[in-house]
């Protein structure tokens, strides 16, 4: 399982994505779960990071899900029409 930081805004997006992609390369399980439970400060960049991580996981033949997605981020995903791309773990 990969874990998101407590803050994921535009300012942290590149570093967070790099960390997730490095973790993905080391991850041997066929299912990738990203834990978003620590997120307290975020913007739409958090969705972009999760979607790019999903794309990378699927390109490596892994399934992808998100654990503990904050309700407000789930609402934002719904507004952008991408909630089905971020299934709950």
UniProtKB/TrEMBL annotation:
<dbReference type="InterPro" id="IPR036513">
    <property type="entry name" value="STAS_dom_sf"/>
</dbReference>
<dbReference type="InterPro" id="IPR002645">
    <property type="entry name" value="STAS_dom"/>
</dbReference>
<feature type="domain" description="STAS">
    <location>
        <begin position="1"/>
        <end position="89"/>
    </location>
</feature>
<dbReference type="InterPro" id="IPR058548">
    <property type="entry name" value="MlaB-like_STAS"/>
</dbReference>
<dbReference type="Pfam" id="PF13466">
    <property type="entry name" value="STAS_2"/>
</dbReference>
<protein>
    <submittedName>
        <fullName>Phospholipid transport system transporter-binding protein</fullName>
    </submittedName>
</protein>
